[in-house]
Amino acid sequence: MDNNEGEKLSNYSAETVDDDEPLDLDIDVLLQYASCRLNRTCICARRLTRGLYNEIYLLRFETGPDCIARLSRELTHPASKFASEIATMKYVAQNTNIKVPAVYDWNGTAQNPIKTPYIFMERLPGQHLYRVWHELTVEQKKCVLSQIVEILFELWTKCRFEEIGCLYMDEQSSSDSLSATSTFRIGPVVNPLFYFGGRDCILNFNFSGPFKSLQEFYGALIQKEKEFFEVHGAQELEGKKMPLTRVKILVKQLDLLQSKLSNIFDESVDQKPFTLVHGDFDAQNMLVERSSTNDIKIIGIIDWEFSRTGTLWELCKYPIWIQERDELSTSDTNLQENHEKQNLRDFFYNEMIIKLGNRAGQMLKMKEQDKRIDELEDMFTFMVHKFDTLEGLLEHFFYRYGSEAKANIKLADPIMRLFWGPSLTKVQIPSERTINSYLLSADKSSDTEVKVPKHYIASVYCKLKSIDYNFSWQEASVIAFHMWNNRSSPKKSSANKTISLSEIETEQLEYSQTPL
């Protein structure tokens, strides 16, 4: 194995998790079992990496190609999770030009000699895209983005469906899952959202699809949480000695959100045909190689677990590593990086229109302006939340979008998205003439950042935006500096301290909670 091989082969799992115990595995049994199942002698097994749900081993044989063994670390996953993943990879290989690992053998249960679910699959060459991305020129990055758009085009044009759910092979194909061709069906969504954190114990809820629309899918996710907390919310609060009336309030909020989903999922977002959406379409799951002419080519897409069918809205998104981040960036390095990301987003946007049509471009623009579905994803699709976390996310959502869950165009501003919430301070903006005098003042203050609490600057910025001023963060900082120093009786409290940006998101400030 060459020096770079370990790096190249770490592409078969998510980010390494070092805190958990490694899988209790008998390597000799793994070698013997792989030899038996693949009908050739396995002589070596080397662990490459460990992710949240899996450990990845490289298997070597006396003859024939190497093999990747992906062994499950989590025994609570149902067998259908593995059946769906195998079906998805096979469907993609059978119907598109996207390269995915060939599956040699698999078992979705622990009823086998190695005592854990496993997949023996093809070892693809290449490296994670994320390992080389920052070494690439802008033109090379654009070349990679063009290839990503081509992959999305393959999925959109060749993987079309009438329901939202996970792919499965029919019974006859499942019995011979490694045959050249198979037939497929859409079945229930298999995802930890439906069975982690006690969600598999909800007595009155057993519907995980297929779904006729994205609205129906989110309705089911909300219903699941509502029924869970009606029973278990009281238990959680009793343990924390908190009032049980909060359970009724949370359930009412979930009811309200469920009833307003039609205001979020209109026809522009939620329409057929549905397409195949990768469960984690990130740079860690894209394998690339560099050619002799220094071109970068995507040679494979891996890790299709938890993939499902979904809408064009879900397919059309900027790659996460070029997305605009909701943060304040004032350093020259950050500003330069943001400028490059904007350039790459503009390129990606144009490529999407060329390949997938104007509707794809409209989706990308809508996502920049309307973050309601993103916030629903945070609440219901990324993980299952504890009571108080979900309670806070719901409060934040309704503060931003009101009881009708209508779009708030002002939140298209990334700084507004970062700070807009119930903890903003109530501020009184001075006259336009006074504002102009502040901005023209010689005392624009290089020490503004020191003297004025960040949350106060944020409150001034958001208030200015809400009354249709279009000042930058730097200009708002100057205005806030003068407003802060001109207050007749400044309130003395611990909230007057200057805080870091990371603290702003979590610290409960002691100012008025009155909305702007």
Automatic annotation (TrEMBL):
Q: Which Pfam families match?
A: APH
Among InterPro entries, the record links this protein to: AGP_Transferase (IPR051678), Aminoglycoside_PTrfase (IPR002575), Kinase-like_dom_sf (IPR011009)
Q: What keywords are annotated for this sequence in UniProt? A: Kinase, Transferase
Any one Gene Ontology molecular-function term assigned to this protein's record: kinase activity
Residues in the signal sequence: none
Q: Which source organism does the UniProt entry give? A: Glomus cerebriforme
Q: What is this protein called?
A: Kinase-like domain-containing protein
Q: Where is the Aminoglycoside phosphotransferase domain?
A: 46-313
Q: Which domain of life is it from?
A: Eukaryota
Q: Which SUPFAM superfamilies match?
A: Protein kinase-like (PK-like)
